Amino acid sequence: MEDAQVQVLIGAQWGDEGKGRVVDVLAEDAQVVVRYQGGANAGHTVVAGGKKYVFHLLPSGMLYPNRLCIIGNGLVVDPEKLREEITGLDPSPESIGTRLVVSGSAHIVMPYHKKLDVLAEARRSRHGEGFAIGTTGRGIGPCYVDKYNRIGIRAEDLVLPDVLAGKLRLNLEEKNPILEKIYGEAPFEFEKLYEDALEWGRFIAPYVGDSMSEIDAAFTSGKKILFEGAQGTLLDVDHGTYPFVTSSSCVTGGCCTGGAISPGRIGRVIGVAKAYCTRVGEGPFPTELKDSTGDLLRKNGAEFGVTTGRPRRCGWLDVVALGYSVKVNGLDSIALTKLDVLSGFDELRVCVAYDIDGKRRDAFPGSAAALGRVTPVYRSFKPWSEDISGCRRVSDLPEAARDYVAFIEESASAKVGLIGVGPGREDTIRIL
Ligand code: IMP
């Protein structure tokens, strides 16, 4: 896995695949780590030296002392969260110095985005089943709307008081009537918001830079670069289960625009997939288990959202969806996480095809409505009871676990290059 100069790591399912821990392992061989989409809706957990860190915005590579970490232009940055994260990592933000670059073109999540996100979600819920998305309430959708509407406030604007004042006035002129007239809420006061934004600008100023030039210079000088995706393929705004998706491009292609790398420079794409499936929020999930087996997966896998604390919906692995992810992203390999969670189950099942309206389908359907009508076709696997957390080579795994992994490779048409057998850095079997 470590020989390509530019590697992209993406979520191959519905997010929460354990990308943080895989990035943390791969970052050992990289000099630059870049986040390129999403925002503080993400929650990447890394356990290092027995301590647990949760990153919402910072690239997971921050835990290595000499890595250059970049927040790319494709992100939407909540400045309060960024400050919390930087100061939580190190009591003196100055000591991070030039190790962190925030693209001047990254958009800023403003308080009105978060407010509108929550209000819009409540409004959709009132329309009955099939409308709510179950967003994280972090202002992600409304901030991307402003980006594409070309009225967004970018990181570079926070450090230019006059530009900031003008853009803020323009935005409040539109947001306040929506808040007051559509939602019956209090408007935002210009003065207070402006003062807060100037304060964020003073904090963020040392980090604001040109991410494209930094990445280009790193590439030209032969440095290894790792792009860290957030969320997952099935939450991608184009290729996911729309409208039950996030508002950014979570697939490999998103890193070319949001991370400023040309496609020709990408050497390897790794998709992170859990050994089973989870989903938070609304939307179709064919293999969801609403029974005691699902509860056991949730308990053993500690499947509760790190950003919102919500219990995750749990179900068997779905290789139809995984095969789709391999194709959409051009995956070179799969990093399979949480295999240890499956130890001790009485039965193991994998969804190998879909039955939609009485017809068997081997391909993932493009529409969320069709996906909602799927009856999964399962294949059963021999379970194993051994604790596998101490395994460091494939040959250490019980035969049943090896068979399970081999089946995933064969059915998804991609090699498994890494297996996670526990939460720590060391609990990893590296194959490729
Ligand atoms: P938003 O990104 O907050 O707009 O939420 C849209 C959908 O994506 C919701 O179903 C969220 O639960 C889901 N989502 C957003 N970020 C993550 C993540 O990091 N992991 C898993 N699901 C996520």
Indicate the structural class.
alpha/beta
At CATH level 3, the topology of the largest domain is Adenylosuccinate Synthetase, Chain A, domain 3
Counted up, domains total: 2
Calculate Rg over CA atoms.
22 Å
Give helix % range. 25-40%
Which tags fit this structure?
globular, 20% strand, 432 residues, binds inosinic acid, Adenylosuccinate Synthetase, Chain A, domain 3, 13 helices, Adenylosuccinate Synthetase, subunit A, domain 2, 10-stranded mixed sheet, alpha/beta, 4-stranded mixed sheet
Explain how this protein is built.
This protein has 13 helices and 20 strands. It folds into two domains: 6-97 and 210-430, Adenylosuccinate Synthetase, Chain A, domain 3 (Alpha-Beta Complex), CATH 3.90.170; 107-204, Adenylosuccinate Synthetase, subunit A, domain 2 (Orthogonal Bundle), CATH 1.10.300.10. With 432 residues, the protein is an alpha/beta fold. Helix 3 crosses helix 4 (140-148) and helix 6 (161-182) crosses helix 7 (190-204). It is globular, with a radius of gyration of 22 Å. 50% of the residues are buried. The model has no long low-confidence stretch (mean pLDDT 95). A hairpin with a 2-residue loop joins strand 3 and strand 4 (51-55). Strands 9-7-5-2-10-1-11-15-19-20 form a ten-stranded mixed sheet, sandwiched between helices. Strands 14, 16, 17 and 18 form a four-stranded mixed sheet that branches. Inosinic acid (IMP) binds next to helix 4.
